[in-house]
Amino acid sequence: MDPEKIKKYAYYLFKCKYLLDNFIVHHAKEEDTLESNPWKLQVWHKDRSGVKVRELLKNLIDDKNLQDRLVHLLSMFEVSFTPRQRKNYLVYCLLYLMNADVNDFDGYAYAEFLENMAYRYFAGVYLSEDKLSDVNKPLPGSFDEVMISNDSLNSSVIPGKNADGFVRIYGDGTAATKGIPLFVFNYLDYKIWKFYDAEVRGKKLKEENRVRREFFEMLGCGDFELKVFDQFYFSRTRKSLEHYYPQNQATGKDGALNTDQINCFGNFAMIGSEANSSGSDWSPHTKLDHYLDSSRKIRQVSVASLKFMIMMQMCDDSGKWDFEEIRTHQQKMLALLL
């Protein structure tokens, strides 16, 4: 065997290890808490401020907004694709990083790559019927088809999608859904957080401020404070599909929702399995009593999704959660998603 090829192979193995250690998120804690985001994107550096030089960890990017954006994007992929055999996104990240100048790293370019990859996943796979199974699971090779071309990252433009395409695949409560993948919910939560980041983050807006009021109007609900968005992160435990209007109350009679209406995107959210197992049969109002604090402000439920918090606030605003609220919520979320 050619010694030079062996050296080259070993070099690329070490480089991949270096890239994984420094440019991909790692989970720092076993238990999720509200106090801090457990996902870390950090590098080692030499601290020469004291008498003794120390090796310390610091954030990959000094700009907090950009650092948070990268952490959310990378952790969104990580919690969406937990089995090792489904972590295609890591291969695409490594392909990108292999060609990047890591000594003069461009965090904005990396974030743009990750956002483009998220959109290619969503629009190129999850909104393409020919790449989904009969239960809306991506078919083998689907991700590679939209991400790789001639052994390189694909830069072709994916056409924009509209709400009709989403409804055709995932439904709107008028017919039974075939299933909605976890990535769709996580991508929406990222889009909600990004909307917050762009519109109101860091502006210290009071509740009566017009910009803050319009922000919550775009979400379709009343004001449930901005701290929730700062505390939000993609929890590894948030894998349980919550029906906000419970399945056991589906009758289709006397104004109650039928099964198709309950099993639609507007009535679904991802929360922690522990919270879901204890409250899956509660009515929407009972859930408010358990999931809101004494001030009637929303508190996080097993690091609940932003979508779920919006749903609860809508229910608290109107005093009900019927198909009218579900349909309105779905329309608002699709406007952000698409």
Structural class: mainly alpha
Could you list the spans in which at least 5 consecutive residues all have pLDDT below 50? none
Q: What's the helix count?
A: 14
Sum up the overall morphology in one term: globular
Supply the number of structural domains. 2
Helical content class: 40-55%
Q: Roughly how many Å is the radius of gyration?
A: 22 Å
Overall average residue pLDDT = 88
**Count of DSSP strands:** 8
- Give me the strand/helix succession: HEEEEHHHHEEHHHHEHEHHHH
Q: Main sheet?
A: 2 strands, antiparallel
Strand ordering within the main sheet: 1-2
Termini gap: 52 Å
Percentage of residues in strands = 5-15%
Structure report:
Helix 2 (64-80) runs antiparallel to helix 7 and helix 7 (182-199) runs antiparallel to helix 8 (210-219). The chain is mainly alpha-helical and 338 residues long. 48% of the residues lie in helices and 8% in strands. The protein is globular. It contains 14 helices and eight strands. It starts with a helix and ends with a helix. The protein has helices spanning 3-23, 64-80, 88-98, 107-126, 142-147, 163-170, 182-199, 210-219, 227-231, 259-262, 273-279, 284-291, 306-318, 323-337; strands at residues 26-27, 39-40, 42-47, 54-59, 148-149, 152-153, 240-243, 268-271.
